[in-house]
UniProtKB/TrEMBL annotation:
Residues 142-224 form the MnmC-like methyltransferase domain. PANTHER family: MNMC-LIKE METHYLTRANSFERASE DOMAIN-CONTAINING PROTEIN (PTHR39963:SF1), SLL0983 PROTEIN (PTHR39963). It holds the Pfam family Methyltransf_30. This is tRNA U34 5-methylaminomethyl-2-thiouridine-forming methyltransferase MnmC. It comes from the Bacteria.
Length: 224
């Protein structure tokens, strides 16, 4: 798929897929969206000592970076194990052009950003002390065959239903649910009624939350 770099309204960059007419992030602001959906309404709501995160999918690596940024603000007296799935990884040129480390004041972030992208696939890598990343190159529907610890937090960040409707239907959500711990949280930028109903059928408690800039609502869902 042919991809090009675009700048979103908050100054952060994203990738645009010509064939799908789809951005990897909201054009209103890639960084704002990631921090609002996955940090404010995700990571910051989890209080466990050891947090197992599952991301669908890795994409540009921005969600990993904002998660590390938030993790480094804490006393780091806990552990994060971050598992992320991706079928079509970005290339080195795209990584360099996106340059997400420039969005953060921490001078270590250039090295952290490179370490995230250079981490070997299928192999756990400690990016910073206590933060372990495992990138898994696969189709999302291979999730059922992947051995994971019980997941406390899911970043459901698939492409929109307009271009990939099968990713927003019951079979994939069922696979995700099977990997989650009781009281685990799934957070997503979507607020589709069909998604809410599917999650409720799978015994999630679903809550509509204020969406990121440019989007009225989003979903948080807790596995009962």
């Amino acid at each position: 798929m042919k991809r090009e770099i675009k700048t979103t309204n908050d100054g952060s960059k994203t990738l645009y897929i010509n064939d799908l007419n789809e951005n990897y992030h909201s054009h209103h602001g890639a960084l704002q969206e990631a921090e609002h959906v996955f940090i404010k309404n995700g990571l910051n709501l989890i209080n466990d000592y050891e947090i197992n995160i599952l991301e669908l999918g890795f994409g540009t690596g921005l969600n990993v970076l904002v998660t590390i940024n938030e993790y480094l603000k804490t006393d780091k007296n806990h552990i994060i194990n971050y598992f992320t799935l991706e079928k079509y990884p970005i290339n080195e040129s795209e990584m360099n052009d996106l340059a997400y480390f420039e969005l953060f004041d921490n001078p270590e972030f250039k090295n952290i950003y490179q370490k995230i992208h250079q981490a070997e696939w299928e192999k756990p890598t400690e990016i910073v002390k206590g933060f372990h990343l495992k990138k898994i190159k696969c189709d999302f529907f291979d999730l059922k065959n992947i051995d994971l610890p019980k997941i406390n937090l899911v970043y459901f960040d698939c492409f929109g239903a307009r271009v990939q409707p099968d990713l927003w239907e019951k079979p994939l959500f069922e696979m995700v649910s099977d990997k989650m711990a009781v009281n685990g949280l799934l957070t997503t930028y979507s607020s589709k009624g069909s998604v809410r109903r599917i999650l409720q059928e799978l015994d999630f408690s679903v809550e509509k939350k204020q969406g990121p800039p440019g989007k009225r609502e989003m979903i948080n869902a807790v596995k009962k």
